[in-house]
Structures are given as C-alpha cells and as structure tokens.
Model the fold of this input.
Amino acid sequence: MAHRLVEQALEEYSENFTSPENAVLAALNRETNIKVQMPVMLSGHLQGAVLQMISHMIAPKYILEVGTYTGYSAICLAAGLKEGGALHTIDINEELESMCSRYFREAGVADKIIQHVGNAADIIPKLDHNFDLVFIDADKQNYHLYYDLVFDKVPLGGFILADNVLYDGEVILAPDKQSKNAKAISAFNEKVKADKKVEHVLLPVRDGIMLMRKIAM
Done:
C-alpha cells in the first residue's frame, strides 16, 4: 500500500538483514516500478523472501496463486516446490502475461509455472489438483469467495496465505472510516477468525499476511 505500516527505516533494516534479491527478482522489481501501474502491488524484497522461506518449509507439490500481477511472488513461491511440482497462477490482466512469462523464463521456473488468464472465480473450480499451498492476493472484495472456492482443494495440514490483510492500517479504523476494500478485508479477517477448520496467525509483514493451516474438513 502507499503508506507502509512499518517505518521505512525499520523496513530497510529488516531488508538489510534478509538474503538479497537475486538478479532476476531485482530486475523484475525495477521494471515493475518503472513501467507498470500500481507497483505498490508488488510483493517486493522482504515479503518475497518470507513467501520463499514459507514455501521451502512446506515443500509443496502443488501451489495455487490467485493474483499474479507481474510474477514476483510466483517466482518466490515456486522456489520451494518439490521435484515435479507445479504452481498455477491466475490473473485477470492479460496485458501482463507476456512480462510474467519472460521473467519466469529468466528465473528458470517457466516449466514449473502454469499461467491462467481470466476470472479466478471461473478458473478455480476447473482446476483438478489439490494444493498444498494457496496464496490469495487479488481483488479484495472477493477474498471470501476465493477462500471458499479453494478450501476443499487444500488437504488437511495444507496452508492458505492471504495478502494485504492489514490494508494500510485501515482495518483498525471504525467501520465508517474504512474504504470499501478495507471493509471487505475486515470481514474476511473476521471470517477466518471464526472458522474452526483452520489455525491462523496474522503476520505484520509489509501490509499483513494471514497464514492459515487447515485442521478440519
């Protein structure tokens, strides 16, 4: 988001003590910020490193990402895939597809990533795989819908991540002070909190990541 929850100096300190971006991610970060609208949507160095570390810890066979943008998070998540695994990523913006494909090739993960362009609500039900890890980072109004659509595709012990769950700090404001998207995110957070089928922790990394582990069907 435009105004980071963590003070800039602390974020820079955290990045300084985080493994650096590789050359491909650094180039993608730069090109996104120069050429693409809303570059704040990019996961970026610190969050990307967190996603990559989580993926390595889980070692998923299949990953589903809802919201590709320019492909930064997909590259990070794909790093932890098991041999023979695959990441399916969905985005509605077909104009970014070729840019993503180019960076997937440069990162050496093109053979592991399957791109889908279109409405995620239409595409998710057609996917045959179960997914050990799901990352939701798309239109905020439909987080609740994507959660419901992916839930049965996640096995017991599988993980669902959702990005932007602090929504620039607006979630702590009174409802009448929240934007439409912040209200949707607040409702999603409440939905997760009330769902006894998952364990969950909200990580205050960048704009907030909700980490959920499925414990019941």
User: Anything to note?
Assistant: The chain has one domain: 8-214. The domain at 8-214 is CATH 3.40.50.150 (Rossmann fold).
